[in-house]
């Protein structure tokens, strides 16, 4: 099952799909950061002392909830320097890849392995899909 987010990059493709290009990295982060039910960010937000401290100082439950939501929306993401190519198609037009994704919310950083697929489209662009991760 692939994450519903699919990023098409036109004009970025070379002769073959690549797991570790800047365009691929940015696409993976964009897909994950646009997921409003991102379990990694929810985990980091729930375990952040800074977020919890701010939320606890709010006077109503609605304000506490809003504080947590805003913290989750301001999460920062990065992929580890090492991205692994798991497989390549025979024609080298698609690759499956893995890397460690880090999400930081407040004072807490959570990490999780993320799997994704990069495919060269017929027009020479790239398509990036991200597999959902489970906790």
Describe the model.
By secondary structure, this protein is of the alpha+beta class. It has one domain (6-130). It contains four helices and five strands. The chain has a five-stranded antiparallel β-sheet with strand order 1-5-4-3-2. A hairpin with a 5-residue loop joins strand 2 and strand 3. Helix 3 (49-56) packs antiparallel against helix 4 (61-73). The longest helix has 13 residues, at 61-73. Residues 1-15 have low confidence and may be disordered.
Radius of gyration: 17 Å
Approximately what portion of the residues adopt beta-strand conformation?
Answer: 25-35%
The strand count comes to 5
Shape: elongated
Please summarize the sheet with the most strands: 5 strands, antiparallel
| Helix-strand string | EHHHHEEEE
Kindly state the percentage of residues in helix.
25-40%
Oligomer: single chain
With helices defined by DSSP (H or I, 4 residues minimum), what is the helix count?
4
Could you give the distance between the termini?
15 Å
Comma- or semicolon-separated keywords:
single chain; elongated; 5 strands; alpha+beta; five-stranded antiparallel beta sheet; 30% helix; 135 residues; disordered N terminus; 4 helices
């Amino acid at each position: 099952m692939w994450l519903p987010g699919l990023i098409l990059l036109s004009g970025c493709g070379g002769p073959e799909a690549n797991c570790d290009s800047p365009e691929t990295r940015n696409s993976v982060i964009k897909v994950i950061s646009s997921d409003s039910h991102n379990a990694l960010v929810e985990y980091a937000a729930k375990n952040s002392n800074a977020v919890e401290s701010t939320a606890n100082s709010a006077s109503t439950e609605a304000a506490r909830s809003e504080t947590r939501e805003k913290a989750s929306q301001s999460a920062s993401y990065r992929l580890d320097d090492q991205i692994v190519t798991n497989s390549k198609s025979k024609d080298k037009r698609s690759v499956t890849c893995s890397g460690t994704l880090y999400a930081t919310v407040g004072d807490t950083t959570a990490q999780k392995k993320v799997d994704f697929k990069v495919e060269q489209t017929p027009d020479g662009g790239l398509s990036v899909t991200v597999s959902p991760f489970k906790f």
